[in-house]
Design goal:
heterodimer; A: alpha+beta; 14 helices; B: alpha+beta; 3 domains; 5-stranded antiparallel sheet
Chain lengths: 480, 289
């Protein structure tokens, strides 16, 4: 490999990250323009000569429009050399405590020329809509949160935390999970490696099984995230009506020009966003005849249930777009106001303000979320927001929510209406959830009982063996 | 956007006071300034390429990039391809350019070239360009040349009548003289056209260094393309809908858009037994004249 990686560790806005300048990059991992026919704009994420997935817009070039994502192939078809580089990076960083700069090099060498920001972030193993990430992109569909520009987030920093798998669901191996879950219990969990592709979404290069195990064990799944530094932030217009660039940007951080190492800005300006890989022809031919491998192994049911409870893209964008909400501001919202002390709390749109506040609290301050959401539902004057809030609560298995919905279901048993409908659905889910917990408890108790029995029998047999050995020893003792 | 995989280009002015970067942005480093002026291409009002170089006009400022500052023709052609690629995506940018034989890349759209496309590469040859220019000019002046003959004949007849007088009695003398004068005038116009056609090559050569470069030609069901092999990545094409008709000469196929030749395809780059097939293929998509 002839790649040259020059990296600098920076800290801006309390965010520590690595700024890597890759020159003579081998371009084995990245994004290229798959089809830029008029009215469409489709990018392809590739590794070596494998087109992993396509992501693009059709008949709508609005940067605020969400994109269509479809998995095409899997990283398991790539060479072991490349795959081992990905796993080495995760292990070196998360298990062996090597620094960002040293850990990331094996992957950075695989990228095409350009500037990259590398950081550690907590990822959400879902598609941003409550579906488990690993098999969420088999069919090409529009994915919320993939837009290049997000009006709620604006220029605020955020981590592209939702995942698009690079391995196909068929490569899921249930037998790996036991060992991984055991490692998680012991606190020896590795992380993954992800590459930012669009909006709030990153391609997971390594760590699919770890992400699944973390989800099952309610543990945070962390990744070393690589973000191409391709955006710019403009300052205010000067006297001549000209706007000047003031910072380079990627979702995670905005780097002011004066914080950039020497010549970095020039490198940024001369490097083009899209590079064509050497394997372009091969990738294109594979795209035209790609056959997806059907998954024969099902993911555990708990994976889907837990994924449904993860924050979705609306919550994450609210968390990124809202810094804080005071108790007084929440009370003003509950009173139907959009302003507090003559300032907009979130926006001038009441519905938008309430749902953004809900999303923010659900992600950032769950303790205040439930009372706020339930207060909205109890207030008949705020009925415009009832459906959204009720749907938000549908996946939260909490006694307070159950208390509210069960009373609504009992009171409005005969009534139509979406809240009553959601309440009935919730009660049904609650009962199913409780039943599943009971079964799990029974299974666990049965397993413990078995374990205890086997331990007892082992100690008994050990005791017997000890007795026999003692007897033998006694036999060997010299007679007095 | 077309040609977006081409690497960016950096050009320093002769006096070293300005450095231009042509890539996803248009940036200008002024000597002594810490940070460059960076423009999105949508902030560019017009681009003019003339014999001396490029003139890029942004909102309120005009930049001149002289060709003699560009180290070699490859860099010039890359800069031109990037500019034309971004203009294809930002059609509001006014674009002016000189004589060309290659189609402007502003007409390009992204497209996959099918495996059964007709693909060839090679440089244009002066003889075939001249010959085709003569055919083109003749075709263009066809009606004019035929109009010159009767007009010159009538004019001569009128002149003779005025100066000689008594036209009716001198018809036998006047008619052959007038016809001869009309024919001579038509011949002069024809020769002038031929001369102009031959000088066209020199003018194109002065304006466009691509004339001496190896060119990649593509004809396929999606459209056609002729671009410098050094910048072409087989993912851009000009849709058939961008053209109106084509003509076939002894040496080339020429495709027209708005009565202007936009695509010259030399026949010699394809085996002779393929000429008929290629001709039929184009005729299946465009009207032949």
């Amino acid at each position: 490999m002839n790649s040259v990686v020059v990296s600098t560790t920076l800290e801006i806005d309390g965010r520590e990250f690595l700024l890597a300048d890759v020159s003579k990059g081998t371009g084995q991992v990245g994004i290229f323009k798959g089809n830029n026919a008029p009215g469409s704009d489709t990018d392809v994420f590739f590794v070596e000569s494998e087109p992993i997935f396509s992501i693009g817009k059709q008949n709508n070039l609005d940067p605020a429009a969400d994109k269509l994502v479809a998995q095409i192939s899997g990283i398991e078809k790539c060479s072991d050399v490349v795959k081992s580089r990905f796993s080495v990076v995760g292990d070196n960083f998360f298990l062996y405590g090597q620094g960002l700069a040293r850990s990331a090099v094996p992957v950075l060498e695989l990228l095409s020329e350009g500037l990259y920001v590398v950081h550690e972030s907590r990822m959400i193993p879902s598609d941003g809509a409550g579906n488990f990430f690993w098999n969420a992109y088999n069919v090409r569909h529009e994915v919320a949160g993939t837009a290049d520009r997000n009006s709620v987030i604006g220029d605020a920093n955020f981590s592209p935390c939702f995942l698009i798998p690079c391995e196909q669901a068929a490569s899921y191996q249930p037998n790996k999970m036991t060992a991984l879950q055991e490692r998680i219990r012991k606190g020896k969990v590795s992380g993954g490696v992800a590459y930012h592709v669009s909006g709030m979404f990153s391609a997971l290069l390594d760590g699919h099984h770890t992400a699944t195990a973390c989800l099952l064990n309610d543990k945070d799944f962390k990744c070393l995230v690589i973000e191409p530094l391709t955006g710019v932030i403009y300052g205010a217009e000067d006297g001549g009506g000209r706007k000047k660039i003031v910072a380079l940007s990627c979702p995670y951080v905005k780097i002011p020009l004066d914080a950039l190492p020497e010549n970095t800005l020039e490198r940024f300006l001369i490097t083009r966003k899209y590079a064509r890989p050497d394997t372009y022809g091969e990738i294109k031919s594979k795209m035209s005849r790609s056959v997806k491998t059907a998954s024969k192994r099902a993911f555990p049911a708990a994976v889907y249930e837990k994924a449904a409870q993860l924050p979705d893209s609306a919550m994450v964008e609210s968390t990124s777009g809202v810094n804080s909400l005071s108790e007084e501001q929440l009370n003003a919202l509950l009173a139907g106001e959009v302003k507090y002390e003559d300032k907009y709390i979130i926006s001038n749109n009441y519905y938008n303000s309430v749902i953004t506040a809900c999303n923010y609290l659900q992600t950032a301050d769950f303790g205040r979320f439930l009372p706020f959401a339930l207060d909205i539902l109890k207030n008949e004057d705020l009925s415009a927001a009832h459906k959204y809030v009720a749907e938000r609560l549908l996946n939260i298995m909490h006694p307070a929510v159950y208390g509210y919905f069960s009373s609504v279901a009992a009171e409005k048993a005969e009534q139509d209406g979406f809240v009553a409908e959601i309440a009935h659905k919730y009660v049904q889910r609650w009962n199913e959830h409780k039943e599943r917990l009971r079964q799990e408890e029974e299974t666990e108790m049965y397993a413990r009982k078995k374990q205890l029995e086997s331990m007892q029998s082992a100690s008994e047999s050990k005791g017997l063996a000890t007795l026999e050995a003692a007897v033998r020893d006694i036999g060997k003792m010299p007679k007095k | 956007m077309a040609f977006e995989s081409l690497p960016g280009v950096k050009i320093k002015s002769a006096d070293g006071k300005q450095t231009f970067i042509i890539a996803d942005f248009f940036s200008v480093y002024e000597k002594g300034e810490e940070f460059p002026a960076v423009y999105e291409w949508s902030d560019v009002v017009s681009v003019t390429e003339n014999r001396n170089g490029f003139v890029i006009v942004t909102n309120g400022k005009s930049y001149r990039i002289l060709k003699n500052c560009i180290p070699d023709s490859r860099v010039l052609l890359m800069a031109r391809a990037i500019i034309e690629g971004v203009i294809a995506a930002n059609p509001k940018i006014e674009y002016n350019f000189g004589m060309r034989i290659l189609p402007p890349k502003t007409l390009c759209v992204g497209c996959e070239i099918p495996t059964d496309a007709y693909v060839a590469s090679g440089a244009y040859v002066e003889k075939e360009v001249n010959n085709s220019n003569v055919v083109l000019l003749n075709a263009g002046f066809d009606k004019v040349i035929w109009a010159v003959f009767p007009l010159a004949t009538i004019a001569m007849f009128a002149v003779l009548s005025v100066f000689w007088g008594d036209a009716l009695n001198n018809l036998i003398k006047f008619i052959p003289i007038s016809l001869f004068a009309g024919g001579a005038a038509a011949m002069v116009v024809y020769l002038m056209c031929a001369f102009a056609a031959k000088t066209l090559y020199g003018r194109i050569l002065r304006d466009d260094p691509a004339l001496l470069e190896e060119i990649t030609f593509v004809v396929c069901e999606n459209g056609f393309m002729a671009a410098e092999s050094g910048v072409y990545g087989f993912s851009e094409i000009i849709d058939w809908n961008e053209s109106a008709y084509f003509i076939e000469t002894n040496h080339v196929y020429i495709v027209f858009k708005n009565k202007k030749a936009v695509f010259w395809l030399p026949k010699r780059l394809f085996p002779k037994d393929k000429h008929k097939e290629l001709s039929d293929f184009i005729a299946g998509r465009l009207q032949q004249r």
